[in-house]
Amino acid sequence: MDARQIYFNILFDLEKKILCIKCSDCEFYCPNHAVTMNSAWLAWECIVFAVFICASSCFPLWSRKKDAAAAGSAKRAYIFAGGGVSVLSMMLSVARGTLGVRSFLGFPSELVYFGSSMWETLYGMILAFPVVCLVFIPVYFRLHTNSVYQYLEMRFGSKSVRRLAAATFLLRQVLNLAVTVYTPTVALHAVLGLPHWASAAALTVVTVVFNLLGGLAAAIRADVIQTLTMVLVSGAFIIQATIKSGGPAQVLQDNIDGGRMKFFNFTWDPTVRVDTFSAIIGQLFMSVSIYGCQQTFVQRYCSMSSESKVRRILFSNVPAVSVLFSLSWVVGMALYSLYRYCDPLMSGRISAPDEVLPFYVQDKFAFLPGMLGLFLGSIFNGALSFLVSNINSLSTVTWEDFVSSAPAFRDITDKQQLTAIKIIGIIYSIIIMIMSLFVRFVNGVVEANMLVTSATSGALLGVFLLATLFPMANGKGALCGMIVSHVITIWMAMGRLLYVNTKVDMLPLSVKACPNATVRALNPRNMAVVVNETLSRYAPVFEAIDSSHTAKEAVSNNIVFDSLMKFYSISYMWYAVIGTLVCVVCGVIVGYLTNQESDKFDERLLHPLVARMARKCPGQSHTFTTPDRERTSEENEASDKTCDTIVEDQKTQTGLAGNKIYYIDSIEPLKTRL
What we know:
With 674 residues, the protein is mostly helical. It has helices spanning 39-61, 64-71, 74-80, 87-99, 102-114, 122-135, 137-140, 150-156, 159-192, 196-213, 216-245, 248-257, 276-293, 295-301, 307-339, 356-364, 371-403, 414-436, 445-469, 475-499, 518-522, 533-568, 575-593, 608-616, 633-641; strands spanning 9-12, 18-22, 646-648, 663-665. The strands form two sheets. The chain has a two-stranded antiparallel sheet with strand order 1-2. Helix 2 crosses helix 3 (74-80), helix 4 packs across helix 15 and helix 5 (102-114) crosses helix 15. The longest helix is centred in the last third of the chain and has 36 residues, at 533-568.
């Protein structure tokens, strides 16, 4: 059909992108801008949005004075929540922190456009919880230090190892939080046309206020509110989209026919973005690094009153995370069934895959006043609660591992320390806001988050494994292992970003059922390209000249180039595995080669089983600073019933090569620690 016969008025900008379309039987439609809304309806949605944000932000702050009173000090309440958090609240907070706001917005679009392959990362997540319970919790839970990275200094006697591990955590969290801040800006931009920077600035302002007034307990209560809201809103999406699509059986069949439901796909190819094997092994390493070596989660564990409660929380999170993680994917299944023959991205109604869920709410929930405002508020509040709790951990780690050792801050009071921690949190909030503006240049919310997490998890997990499971490892080995691991994973990540086409092909959809199917023909992405006849005639000549100059270079560089391209093409799902193995192997080798008498440490800083095995193994004996004895069953039972265990890092003993020895006293109350 001739385009002139179509009754469309199309406005183009200088880059030939469609701005607005007007047809004979419809209103103005602007795919690259917010759809025109009724002013009264939009005002109502904004009111619902504002009320929800205010209520969900003020309620967690209501008991902040009680938190400080229960903790004994404002600083302890800010860092450890006063120990008064219930098991259910902590379980929901850990589950919420596991998924983040990316699951709410990113996973549905991932299934619609790329299928269920990333859904299988759930296998690695749920396997990580028992691993953390068995390997890490028995080692450093009873230390109850302000920073989990202080454990590394106690184990290796090296501030450099502690600070490098802390810096790794800070880098990973800042990059991940930039993705978190960017996520609600996508929804607000898609629905209201609000610029990304404006949404990010608003979120940052609210975060700063929350950070100044609240602490970890308030952040945990905000996580609970957000988790419950996310479940209710997601349930509404699933029910409405399923009914519109013809029922659950139809939704499932549509996804199977459309190639979206492909599980247990073992390709054994490390260059594949994600398959079942990499979802199990790669995600397992990433999740263990997050749950067992990250300040955000260890800080929550130490808020509980006993180690047995921590184990209960982690094992309870297996079904909780499974349900919450799968909920967003089921939303994606319903959306695909609803839009499989009228893809909003192909038809130009959205400009990015991550906008499909906001578009659905605007498209199908106009009959329910307030639903759009509740959806936007849920995404905004989800990013807020996740950002606040992580800012808490970032500022705590920065203070404890870096700033507090400066001469100017050594003798200040707890109140002054808390003020400094909050100022650090404000600085981090501003940095994260600025970095979030660059996330849009990465392929999708999920892709950006997975790349950052995997690239930084290997060295962090490796050094904690060296500390807990390898008695022969020392400070030199741990430091060397972390540096080599970081160099290799950063090299792989940079090579992948610079030299490998990381764009993933979308699974096919259609627009044949769209009311205005002709829009597809006029979409500038599908316009024909005019070919220059003169250049096309001489193209073979140009190719021959070019090939004669590059033939010799191609022969000599082909092997090296191909090898590097294969190396760079390795999926980011394997970065954590590679980084961990490199760190452990280098740490063990260097530890054996540089082992000295001064490398003494308290054997209770090892995993109990490893400590027993180390005494019985033949070869070079390992020197510990504690008596060669086993704890009695009564002592172990008592240690499970209380977290009143402290590390008195001021108690040192001289005469052992000048090395600082740390003692663990399982009797003194925890409250004296702070």
